[in-house]
Amino acid sequence: MLKFDVFTLGRARTMSMLNVEKLNAWYDRSHVVQNLTFHVEPGEVVTLMGRNGAGKTTTLRTIMGLLEKCTGNVSFDAQQMLGKPAHIRFHSGLAYVPEDRRIVAGLTVRENLQLGLIASAARAHTNAMIEEIAQTFPRLKERLNQEATSLSGGEQQMLAIARAMMAKPKMILLDEPSEGVMPVLVDEMFELFSRMKNQGTTILLVEQNVERALSISDRAYILDQGRIVHEGRAADLLADDEIQQKYCAV
Amino acid sequence: MAEITLQLLMLQLLTGLALGAVYALLAIGLSLIFGMLTVVNFAHGAFFMVGAFLGVYFLTVTGSFWFSLVLTPTAVGAIGLLCERFLVRPLYGRGIDYPLLLTFGLSYVMVEAMRVIFGIDGVPTSTPSELRGVVNVGFGMFPLYRLFLIAATAVIVLALWLFIEKTRYGLIIRAGSRDNEIVRVLGIDISKIWLLVFGLGTAIAGLSGLLAAPTRAVNPEMGIPVLAESFVVTVVGGMGSLVGAVVAGLLVGVVFSMTSLFAPEYAELSIFVLMAVVLLVRPQGLFGKAGLMG
Ligand SMILES: Nc1ncnc2c1ncn2[C@@H]1O[C@H](COP(=O)(O)OP(=O)(O)O)[C@@H](O)[C@H]1O
Ligand SMILES: [Mg+2]
């Protein structure tokens, strides 16, 4: 398998950023994620594709430690993660932007951003960090003191991403960030992902917007009924209409 | 029956506010705990009762009402912390009825413990010497202690508001009471926050027990009607709303005391009628929509 040594040049040996081995997850008795094995290398952008209900969200939630019933190995940045609660995973440098954004109602945009650093040792620099983030997210900058839920869907998504980036994570899990976002903002968002990648953030992306996602990705995995049915380089998948039709057509 | 004058009405209103202040504190504790942990704390009245007993005890031992004012909520809050850590915590994720039954049982244990320690007749109370007497409030003479009750509640509510609106923990509580998952993935150990909130809520219940002690009989059963009344307040104000707890607490206190002026035999009933009316008109409570910690 192709390992992206170029990103880890100078290290003694290549170590995946995220290594998932034989991962299984259940909701009650339904076995939703079945025997997943995959990896994401430092600095990579990897897309997880598949139809609705394929198990993408569940996979991300399991990686983040939000599913109670699961087996298998998840290691992140050389640390064992399985069995560790979500907040411990956050402190190892893993960020998660959930599918439904989870912007906290009743809080301002600024307070939502504050939450991103509230548990970190760096929280003394919260204001400076909000300033810095606001440069990257000009739309949020003007609205810092506004009620967060008054933002448009796309802006809320930007806020959710900005909040997750406050603590400068090593890796970010993004669940369908472009869902329900107007096209102009989707462009902005994917430019942002490219910039995040250039700055060294590792990204695991779940997207229905397959072409967009593949165009910024290094590799991709296709999930169907809880199993990985295909994996490959993003460029190859982008050219492969047949496989896109088979597993990703809505 | 004495003639009802405007002065009498005003004094009775003030009496109602003093009563309502205690209700407000109780409902704040219930609301905080419910809003954050979704635990309906059936032991809330028992924590109130323990606060009254310990308040009297610390007053007797230290000889200072002010020491007691600090020691009592600390001790009751500490009991609350232990209860959350070792009794309530194992029940999270099992549905709302488990902690409800547990705290219900816990309240009996606490009542029985007080019977064993202090006897079934309770303990005599008196108003702390520095707060005895009456003051002229402009439209008549009013007991100083009840004024103190209103002022102390105002201070506690203000401090709590500042804590929740202006501090880091307050922000975590506001966010976590709406969505505990997002605060977990942002690095918060939510179990510590739940512990803190349960401790805080029970400490406030203990404090309200201490504050109410000089105005009522302190006995092991005193928490039972108080629990029902606190639920009335919480339902009227809207479950989980702090503003609702304060407004409804005062409202219930005033309704109770006004009814006792005109028809004392209906005073107990009046607050349940108030609750029924509010439920019919606004099922979510007066401030139920305004948001959990709004
Ligand atoms: N909370 C849940 N309880 C029970 N089943 C669920 C739950 N969430 C998702 N599922 C089921 O698990 C499967 C995978 O869902 P999900 O991971 O959300 O897929 P995707 O994100 O790929 O659309 C689906 O069949 C879905 O119905
Ligand atoms: Mg999904």
Furnish the topology, listing elements before pairings:
The complex is a heterodimer of chains A (250) and B (294).
Chain A: E1 18-27, E2 30-40, E3 45-49, H1 56-64, E4 70-76, E5 79-80, H2 86-91, E6 94-97, H3 109-115, H4 126-136, H5 138-141, H6 153-165, E7 171-175, H7 183-198, E8 202-206, H8 210-216, E9 219-224, E10 227-233, H9 234-239, H10 241-248
Parallel strand pairs in A: 3-8, 3-9, 6-7, 7-8
Antiparallel strand pairs in A: 1-2, 1-4, 4-5, 9-10
Helix pairs in contact in A: 3-6
Chain B: H1 6-37, H2 44-62, H3 65-88, H4 97-118, E1 134-136, E2 141-143, H5 144-166, H6 168-178, H7 180-185, H8 190-212, H9 223-237, H10 242-262, H11 267-281
Antiparallel strand pairs in B: 1-2
The complex binds adenosine-5'-diphosphate and magnesium ion.
Adenosine-5'-diphosphate (ADP) is lined by residues 27, 30, 32, 50, 52-58 of chain A.
Would you give an account of this structure?
The complex is a heterodimer of chains A (250) and B (294). Helix content of chain A is 35%, strand content 25%. Chain A is built from 10 helices and 10 strands. The radius of gyration of chain A is 18 Å and the shape is globular. In chain A, 43% of the residues are buried. In chain A, the strands form 2 sheets. Chain A has a 6-stranded mixed β-sheet, with helices on both faces. Chain A has a 4-stranded antiparallel β-sheet with strand order 2-1-4-5, with helices on one face. Chain A is an alpha/beta fold and 250 residues long. Chain A has helices spanning 56-64, 86-91, 109-115, 126-136, 138-141, 153-165, 183-198, 210-216, 234-239, 241-248; strands at residues 18-27, 30-40, 45-49, 70-76, 79-80, 94-97, 171-175, 202-206, 219-224, 227-233. Chain B is mainly α and 294 residues long. In chain B, 72% of the residues lie in helices and 2% in strands. Chain B has 11 helices and 2 strands; from the N terminus they run ααααββααααααα. Chain B has a two-stranded antiparallel ribbon. In chain B, α2 (44-62) packs antiparallel against α3 (65-88), α9 crosses α10 and α10 packs across α11. Classes of the chains: A alpha/beta (250), B mainly alpha (294). Chain A binds chain B through residues 64, 66, 68, 85-87, 90-91, 95-96, 98, 102, 104-107, 111, 114-116, 118-120, 123, 163-164, 167, and chain B through 93, 168, 171-172, 174-175, 178-179, 181-190, 291-294. Bound molecules: adenosine-5'-diphosphate and magnesium ion. Adenosine-5'-diphosphate (ADP) binds next to β2 and α1 of chain A.
